[in-house]
Amino acid sequence: MQNTGKFAVAGMLVLNLISTINNCGRWLPTMQNTGKFAVAGINLVYNLSLTDLAEQQKLQWYSNDQDVKMCVMKGKDEENCQNYIRIMAKSAQGRLLVCGTNSFKPVCREYNILTGNYSMEKEKPGQALCPYDPHHNSTAIYVGTFNERIKLYLPRRPIEF
């Protein structure tokens, strides 16, 4: 059986996304007014078309080898010593904040997305912004006022940054 055209591409992409979402367990916010939505997974973020689910763009962000080795040395398995993208928020016009577990050493990056590509502008430690554990249940809400704060909702209480 031969599949051709957009349907086959979208179907393969959906299967890959289902696998990614099942492994990571996260849908992340839409990119409003762009005709795209974003889905994050392990070591990557997909931007997909709302009309046909075609991949518009992909950001790959792997933990560096040193962080993975340290994570494994501390007794974690290699599957958990990846960069699970857990937080993504549009921080300003054309700017995107992305945080990942980074092998149990959270890191956040700010990207400029005005050009249509991901252009990293800065990287900072993600402790207290992003969970260490990829299986930790948390929700982050970005509030773009009063020094641009992020709230990380842990199971019991919110922490404001």
Automatic annotation (TrEMBL):
Tagged with keyword Signal: yes
UniProt cross-references to SUPFAM superfamilies, sorted A to Z: Sema domain
Keywords assigned by UniProt, alphabetized: Differentiation, Signal
Transmembrane segments: none
GO molecular function: chemorepellent activity; semaphorin receptor binding
InterPro entries from the UniProt entry: Semap_dom, Semap_dom_sf, Semaphorin, WD40/YVTN_repeat-like_dom_sf
Keyword Cell cycle (UniProt): no
Residue stretches making up the Sema domain: 1-161
Single biological process term from Gene Ontology: semaphorin-plexin signaling pathway
Cellular component aspect of the GO annotation: plasma membrane
Leader sequence segment: 1-24
Record-given protein name: Sema domain-containing protein
